[in-house]
Design the sequence.
């Protein structure tokens, strides 16, 4: 009689442990799905921001190139002044 009571208790403990493992697996699965979904959205957003940044850089480069072609002497003068300022600022350190 004692053996069947112990066997019943063991079965109950095993069943509860099995339920706990199943719950943990479900929770882990949901957490993984959540993480993958958010990582995917973050990846999409990073790609959008990078594409936007490249487009803006291309636009600026195009405007600068156009300006230099239209006003080459002014561009050389501005580059000279920028170089002098840079040299002055870096020499004081």
Sequence:
């Amino acid at each position: 009689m004692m053996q069947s009571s112990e066997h019943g208790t063991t079965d109950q403990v095993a069943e509860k442990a099995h339920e706990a493992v199943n719950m943990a697996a479900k929770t882990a699965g949901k957490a993984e799905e959540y993480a993958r979904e958010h990582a995917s959205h973050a990846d999409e957003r990073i790609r959008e921001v990078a594409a936007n940044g490249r487009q803006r850089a291309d636009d600026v480069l195009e405007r600068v190139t156009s300006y230099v072609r239209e006003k080459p002497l002014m561009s050389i003068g501005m580059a000279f002044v920028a170089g002098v300022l840079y040299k002055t600022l870096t020499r004081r350190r």
In short: The chain is about 95% helix and 0% strand.
